[in-house]
Amino acid sequence: MPASSGLARQHAPIQFYFDFSSPYSYIASEWIDAVAARHGRRVQWHAILLGVLFQAAELKPPVAYPLKRDYALRDFERSAHFAGLPYRQPGAFPIATQHAARVFWWLHESQGHDAAVAWAHAGLRAYFTRGVALNDVVALKALAGESGLDAAAAEAAWGDERWKQRLKAENEAALAAGVFGAPYCIVDGEPFWGQDRQAQIERWLASGPFKRV
Amino acid sequence: MPASSGLARQHAPIQFYFDFSSPYSYIASEWIDAVAARHGRRVQWHAILLGVLFQAAELKPPVAYPLKRDYALRDFERSAHFAGLPYRQPGAFPIATQHAARVFWWLHESQGHDAAVAWAHAGLRAYFTRGVALNDVVALKALAGESGLDAAAAEAAWGDERWKQRLKAENEAALAAGVFGAPYCIVDGEPFWGQDRQAQIERWLASGPFKRV
């Protein structure tokens, strides 16, 4: 390999996949950029639909299982507090998030990655700390306005075939990359599933693959 | 509450549930006693059958799902190395572990908790670092002998109705306690599922429930 490829690899962005209805995505969304920055990396955010991935992978969310549900609801809140974050379990959960995700990709294309990430934070924080129902078009439009977006344009975007197709393509690309859950990070080809892989991601960024014992 | 109850709570043992065929149980089994000791606690180990719990909870192991399987096999090894442990993915996986678990409970009753824990370590290490098939009665009997047990007595124990019933009762008790996976720790009534909750367990032991942000 040419001498430049090591450098290129070192500067490759971290791929970060999230769903607006995923509590663990919310938690990871609050640290992923800082973790990357500590190691001179950037993050490429991807809004995806967990429901589509679950269907392809024959999986269900943890709250779909009787015994796991109670634990999961407890662990969402506890893990957020452990990470120093506010958390309030939304009453309606999980919810369909295709509208919020299409707004993400519309912003990504029309205003750039940072604008899309700002919307991701706005949506995740609104849902997981204030219970704003992102699947309610009135609430979502209001949130778009509060977040400094053109609310009517956002509403037009989530109903637009162009962003429907874009989100569909992004879900398919995620599946092709092996993504089956969220948050899901890919660092130099290595996949890390879950907000609880933060320490592993940090060490991987610092020193690469863990040594075989 | 009387003044003594705080002290009693502080000294209550950590409940630790594991399955001999669970890679994440193997990882946690290597740190749980040290974590407890750092906080003046002891650990009460419970050998259980994940298959029984999964059936009751309508769950399947991660390797039963097409997309999750590849990730899981990678994460088992990576997480072991991250924890500083040797790991070799067994060829036959997962396996039925009722024989090894019955030996655990037989030892627990006849020789005490420490002897049962020594057997747990012997079984988990043999399976996850040397590929010793714990579901193979010849290999299991040999392992019992190597581990300083009376191999014939161990073989008699795993075929004995008494230890079959004991394991059944322990599985039922685990289910009643809300256990649906392994490793599963209960600290003063608070459940922690997974080897990746070590940091949360440490903080909980040090300072109790995490403060609401």
TrEMBL record, chains A, B:
GO biological process terms, semicolon-separated: glutathione metabolic process; naphthalene catabolic process
UniProt keyword terms in alphabetical order: Isomerase
Active-site residues, as the UniProt record annotates them: 22 (nucleophile)
Domain DSBA-like thioredoxin: 14-203
UniProt-listed InterPro entries: DSBA-like_thioredoxin_dom (IPR001853), GST_Kappa/NadH (IPR051924), HCCAis_GSTk (IPR014440), NahD-like (IPR044087), Thioredoxin-like_sf (IPR036249)
Catalytic activities: 2-hydroxychromene-2-carboxylate = (3E)-4-(2-hydroxyphenyl)-2-oxobut-3-enoate
GO molecular function, one term: 2-hydroxychromene-2-carboxylate isomerase activity
EC class (word): isomerase
Pfam family, one: DSBA
EC number(s) from the headed UniProt entry: 5.99.1.4
Organism domain of life: Bacteria
SUPFAM superfamilies linked: Thioredoxin-like
Alphabetized Gene3D superfamilies for the sequence: Glutaredoxin (3.40.30.10)
Transmembrane regions listed in the UniProt entry: none
Keyword Isomerase among record annotations: yes
Entry similarity comment: Belongs to the GST superfamily. NadH family.
Name of protein: 2-hydroxychromene-2-carboxylate isomerase
Record organism: Paucibacter sediminis
Source organism phylogeny: Bacteria, Pseudomonadati, Pseudomonadota, Betaproteobacteria, Burkholderiales
